[in-house]
Amino acid sequence: MGWVFILAGLAVLLTTFWFWQDRRRRARTLIVEENRLSHPTAMMPPPPDPPPPNAPPS
Questions:
Q1: DSSP conformation letters of 8-54
Q2: DSSP 8-state assignment for residue 1
Q3: Containing structural domain, residue 10
Q4: Where is the composition biased (Pro residues) (predicted)?
Q5: Distance between CA atoms of residues 57 and 51, nearest Å
Q6: Region 26-32: what's the mean pLDDT?
Q7: What average pLDDT does range 40-51 have in this prediction?
Q8: Which of 12, 20, 44, 52 is spaced 20 to 30 A from 3 at the CA atom?
């Protein structure tokens, strides 16, 4: 009967450990995403308009 409690306690500890590791991992990616949002990458200027076609000689 005691082994049931030991396994239950071990399952609780493993679940808690997994939850905290997953939360830390997610928090790290959120910080990276926040940083990316507040500092957008350099925008390239739009390409210049193509020159108008030359009028045919008349």
A1: HHHHHHHHHHHHHHHHHHHHHHHHHHHHHHHSPPPPPPPPPPPPPPP
A2: -
A3: 1-38
A4: 43-58
A5: 17
A6: 64
A7: 73
A8: 20
Question: In this structure, which amino acid lies at residue 40?
Answer: P
Cα–Cα distance measured from residue 50 to residue 46, given in angstroms and rounded to the nearest whole number: 12
Residue 46 lies in a domain: no
Q: Which residue has the tokens 């030359």?
A: 54
Q: Which CA distances in Å does 10 have to 2, 18, 45?
A: 12, 12, 58
- Residue 43 resides in a domain: no
* Mean model confidence pLDDT for the chain: 77
Q: Is the pLDDT of residue 50 over 70?
A: yes
33-54 burial, b for 16+ CB within 10 Å, e for fewer?
eeeeeeeeeeeeeeeeeeeeee
In a domain, 2, yes or no: yes
- Per the document, the length of the chain is 58
